[in-house]
Design a protein that fits this description.
The structure holds 2 protein chains of 2 kinds. Chain A is α+β, with helices and mostly antiparallel strands. Helices cover 27% and strands 30% of the residues of chain A. Chain A is built from 8 helices and 15 strands. The longest helix of chain A is centred in the first third of the chain and has 14 residues. Chain A is globular and about 55 Å long. By secondary structure, chain B is of the alpha/beta class. Chain B has a single domain, classed as Pectate Lyase C-like. In chain B, strand 1, helix 1 and strand 2 form a beta-alpha-beta unit. Chain B is elongated, with a radius of gyration of 18 Å. Chain B starts with a strand and ends with a helix. The chains are: A alpha+beta, B alpha/beta. The interface between A and B is medium-sized, with 18 and 28 residues.
């Protein structure tokens, strides 16, 4: 049992709250479903000529030398516009370079580190504990942007730490992030297959398979939406996941329709949540939501 | 008319207050600001009328016998689960498993219903004004269901008994769910039940779906059918 939420604000919306504040409201409402950890992937305004990078330097108060090593290596590769330390994590804004190369260089400088995200707009923040803990560390309520997905986790199959928390960024695909509620029961089979093809997995969390699955489909020419569509038949188990990219966000649901999700779309916004309680918290006057059916998939692009 | 404001109250307090007002003989109780919270108005076993002014979460009016509840919003999973008697009217959409295992009474959903509405129904009447989701009426054992819109895949899968009326299209039938001709009694029941409920429905064109009763007893000759069903 986890909680997932998604929010996309349409261009003509007049809501003056920050995206972060809306997300935090929704996450608070679902924290009873997932008290173990909380995280969000938030898409801010694009800056010209900039990549945003989130790196976990290590667990439990990583040594300052690790941060220094990462900064030196990244600085040798490209120019660093900004570097901010938030707990175990380091956020960098850098002049764009090849993302795969950037990730490789960071891991060479700090082998125990993990790159949480690279994107032109994606900011990926996660932490153990409830939404309050996330907000204290990252000041979520102040963050602005266009859309976001978030997660509250109740761990059922892998350990509780920051790495096993969600969202998961899809390594190698800038800006693509996933949150998931459910179980992917062909995870081990798929992971084994993908590892043979060179994918690296950083956790034992079955949710981490969704990003590489979508990436693998897109490598063979599918669009993201076609990949999501196919996933409803090829991922096994009871699941519901949300995907976000720089272009927008969407959801996909399993064949059995065994995991909850409700959605509301108005002229101003799209809101998705595991339970309506999250939508009511952020949008008390929202119209009655709808529960999508088995194998359902939908994607909303910004500006539509 | 007494009102209960759910704000700042825990669920147990809300339900205790509803029951205390029922015990005091109040004719009608209004519940404000339910905010899609779970387990509101559960375990009502005295006749009473409760009006819920907004959306509710999971298991609303669950495990109840005899109440008359109207909900002016939508509902999460398991609306009126195991209802023994009474009436539950929902003006919005229902999540999965509305009217699950209900034994009697009436559940009327004016909007759409998610997957598995009326799963293991054992009696009573479930009306869905809009469309019904995947595996509606799964393992239904008794009672009547009326779907005014379309039905999703695997309608009436492994149905033992009871009847499902569908006004719209059926995406696919479940194992051993078959169409049967309507009787005069069916027509009368359908017309009267829909009129009394106030749910908007097509005037004609309903199909009746029942159990083909081919799965009652295992026979090795029918292995192929069983393999599919299981």
């Amino acid at each position: 049992m986890c909680g997932i939420v998604g929010y996309l604000r349409k261009a003509k919306a007049t809501d003056e709250r920050s995206i972060g504040a809306v997300m935090l409201d929704m996450l608070h409402a679902l924290s009873t479903r997932g008290p173990d950890s909380t995280g969000i992937a938030l898409y801010g305004s694009p800056a010209d000529n900039e990549l945003r990078v989130w790196v976990k330097l290590g667990d439990d108060n990583p040594h300052p030398g690790i941060e220094q090593a990462v900064l030196e290596r990244v600085g040798a590769l490209t120019s660093i516009h900004d570097a901010v330390r938030e707990g175990e994590c380091l956020r960098l804004a850098v002049r764009p370079v090849d993302a795969a190369n950037l990730e490789r260089e960071i891991l060479q400088a700090a082998p125990a580190a993990e790159v949480f995200s690279i994107g032109t707009r994606l900011e990926l923040m996660k932490q153990v504990g409830r939404p309050d803990a996330l907000d204290r560390q990252f000041h979520i309520a102040e963050l602005s942007g266009t859309h976001s997905i978030g997660h509250t986790r109740l761990s059922t199959e892998s350990r509780v730490d920051i790495s096993h928390s969600q969202p998961f960024w899809t390594h190698g695909v800038t800006d693509l992030a996933v949150v998931h509620n459910g179980h992917i029961t062909n995870y081990h089979k798929l992971r084994h297959r993908f590892e043979h093809r060179g994918y690296r997995f950083y956790t034992e969390n079955d949710s981490e398979i969704i990003g590489p699955y979508l990436q693998e489909q897109m490598k063979t020419g599918s669009t993201l939406q076609e990949a999501m569509e196919r996933s409803t038949r090829e991922l096994d188990g009871t699941f519901c996941y949300l995907v976000a990219s720089a272009e927008g966000l969407g959801f996909a649901k399993d064949f059995f329709c065994a995991k909850p999700l409700v959605m509301v779309e108005t002229d101003d916004y799209v809101a998705l949540a595991t339970e309506e309680i999250a939508i009511r918290r952020a949008f008390p006057d929202a119209p009655p939501p709808r529960e999508p059916g088995a194998n359902a998939m939908q994607f909303w692009s910004l500006g539509e | 008319m007494p009102e209960i404001d759910c704000n700042e109250k825990d669920t147990r307090d809300i339900n205790r207050q509803i029951k205390a007002l029922v015990a005091d003989g109040e004719a009608e109780i209004v519940v404000r600001n339910p905010a899609a919270r779970h387990n509101i108005a559960v375990g009502l076993i005295q006749p009473c009328r409760v009006l819920i002014d907004g959306s509710v979460g999971y298991y609303c009016v669950g495990l109840s016998d005899g109440p008359d509840v109207e909900i002016k919003g939508s509902a999460g999973w398991g609306l009126a689960e195991n209802l023994m008697s009474g009436q539950v009217v929902l003006h919005g959409n229902a999540g999965n498993s509305a009217g699950a295992t209900m034994h009697g009474g009436l559940v009327a959903v004016h909007g759409h219903a998610g997957a598995r509405a009326g799963i293991a129904m054992k009696g009573g009447t479930l009306i869905i004004g809009g469309n019904a989701g995947y595996m509606t009426g799964f393992m239904m054992q008794k009672g009547s269901m009326i779907i005014c819109g379309d039905a999703g895949e695997a309608l009436g899968d492994s149905i033992y008994d009871g009847r499902i009326f569908v006004g719209g299209e059926v995406a696919s039938f479940g194992n051993d769910a078959v169409i049967e001709d309507m009787t005069k009694d069916d027509e009368t029941f359908l017309r009267e039940t829909l009129e009394n409920s106030g749910v908007k429905a097509p005037n004609s064109g309903f199909k009746k779906v029942v159990s083909g009763k081919q799965l009652y007893n295992f026979d090795k000759k029918d292995f192929a059918r069983w393999r599919h069903a299981l």
